[in-house]
Amino acid sequence: MARIVIAPPRIILTDARLPSLPPRRLVQWLRHSEWTRHIPVILMAHHADAELVVDSSRTTGVLFKPFSLDTMLNEVRRLLRIDIAERSLSDKVHTGP
Q: What is the pLDDT of residues 63-87, one digit of tens each?
């Protein structure tokens, strides 16, 4: 997780059943810091993992397995476009017209 702070990624994809770092803990940690709270998080899960998805409700998106590469890329692109738009708006608010 230290790497995320040193060089924050533009997006994080994580699996609902990742034993070393449950998604709920990851998302809570990310949302706690002003330096990482903006990072979109996509949770990859089986439909049977609906409880884990709800438990990690502060994720930005969910991909239910199995999914195609095109589906994943479309979701990543969508979230990156939103991220770019929000950053642009935030920059305008902070710097003024």
A: 999 999 999 999 999 988 887 777 6
Kindly list the distances between the CA atom of residue 6 and the CA atoms of 2, 23, 78, in Å, as whole numbers in the listed order.
6, 20, 25
3-state secondary structure of 64: strand
Domain positions in the chain: 2-95
Q: How far apart are CA 67 and CA 36, in angstroms?
A: 27
Distance from C-alpha of 34 to C-alpha of 51, rounded to nearest angstrom: 28
Q: What confidence category does residue 94 fall into, taking pLDDT thresholds of 50, 70 and 90? A: low
We find that the CATH architecture of domain 2-95 is 3-Layer(aba) Sandwich (3.40)
